[in-house]
């Protein structure tokens, strides 16, 4: 039996680029200020992360409470429906039933024209008051 030779494909490594490092001189105070800025930025990021975590926890808690409320409302609705089926219907005499005025048209006593300005309306009201005082 002949064995087949498996040829491995050689992947060339990326050439390492050798560069001369560039050095920049930073004054001591600038270095301290940069370090202080970096640390304060890191502290701010940690505070933001804590706030996000707290928000996520509160949101999960809110959703759990909403689910509990929704279940309670459904339970109350089912209890009300059950009670409506069990309890007898009440028959109210006609004289105790209040009339509804939804279907009756409203009567408008008088309409003041909307085109009149406030001064003319004020004069009309003053004239009506004088007429009532004379009686």
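Sequence proposed for the structure above (135 residues):
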């Amino acid at each position: 039996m002949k064995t087949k030779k498996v040829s491995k494909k050689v992947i060339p490594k990326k050439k390492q680029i050798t560069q001369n490092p560039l050095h920049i001189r930073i004054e001591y105070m600038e270095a301290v200020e940069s370090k202080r800025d970096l640390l304060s930025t890191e502290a701010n990021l940690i505070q933001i992360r804590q706030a996000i975590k707290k928000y996520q926890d509160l949101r999960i808690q809110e959703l759990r409470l909403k689910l509990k409320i929704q279940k309670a409302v459904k339970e109350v609705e089912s209890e009300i429906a059950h009670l409506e089926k069990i309890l007898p219907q009440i028959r109210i005499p006609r004289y105790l039933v209040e009339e509804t005025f939804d279907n009756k048209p409203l009567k408008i006593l008088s309409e003041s024209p909307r085109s009149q300005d406030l001064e003319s309306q004020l004069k009309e009201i003053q004239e009506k008051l004088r007429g009532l005082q004379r009686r």
